[in-house]
């Protein structure tokens, strides 16, 4: 995450920059950068296992499917370079984890799933997840801040 500052006379005229080039128009001065790491919780792997084994109740078929299934992990930094065919191949898999997903990555994933006719549910935990929550068929805001953002956007598109 990068930090910068600028002196502004009237903050009401400030818009969020949509590209690195636009940052210059505010005369921002770079202050520094920090890195954050959010490791998966210990319970994630059990939750993935539970999701993978949940299903139809047809235990014989589930055991065969369980052996064939492989969990695919896609690093989200690659999302912008994927072709339509690569998206098709990824989304045909039974179990996919999108790793290191930012709010903008979540929106891309939701849009790609919906383009292929999938019904999409998204959970989010902050204001930045609001676009993905809005785009999804079902959006679940996990914290109050995200809930307010979601409620502001919600249900205007799909009823």
Could you tell me the strand content as a percent range? 15-25%
Which consecutive residue ranges, at least 5 long each, have pLDDT under 50?
56-68, 144-159
Give the C-level CATH assignment of the largest domain.
Alpha Beta
Radius of gyration, taken over Cα atoms and rounded to an integer in Å: 20 Å
Protein name: Protein kinase domain-containing protein
GO molecular function, one term: ATP hydrolysis activity
Membrane topology: Multi-pass membrane protein
Keywords: Cell membrane, Membrane, Transmembrane, Transmembrane helix
Descriptors:
two-stranded antiparallel ribbon, alpha/beta, cell membrane, disordered C terminus, two-stranded parallel ribbon, transmembrane helix, 6 strands, Rossmann fold, 159 residues
């Amino acid at each position: 995450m990068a930090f910068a500052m600028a002196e502004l006379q009237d903050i009401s005229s400030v818009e969020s920059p949509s590209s690195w080039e636009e940052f210059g128009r505010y005369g921002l001065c770079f202050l520094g950068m920090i890195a954050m790491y959010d490791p998966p919780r210990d319970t994630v792997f059990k939750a993935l296992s539970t999701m993978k084994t949940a299903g139809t109740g047809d235990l014989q078929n589930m055991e065969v499917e369980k052996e064939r299934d492989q969990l695919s992990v896609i690093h989200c930094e690659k999302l912008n370079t994927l072709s339509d065919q690569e998206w098709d191949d990824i989304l045909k898999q039974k179990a996919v984890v999108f790793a290191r997903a930012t709010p903008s990555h979540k929106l891309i994933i939701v849009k790609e799933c919906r383009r292929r006719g999938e019904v999409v549910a998204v959970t989010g935990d902050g204001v930045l997840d609001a676009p993905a929550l809005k785009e999804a068929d079902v959006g679940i805001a996990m914290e109050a801040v995200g809930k307010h953002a979601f409620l502001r956007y919600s249900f205007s598109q799909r009823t």
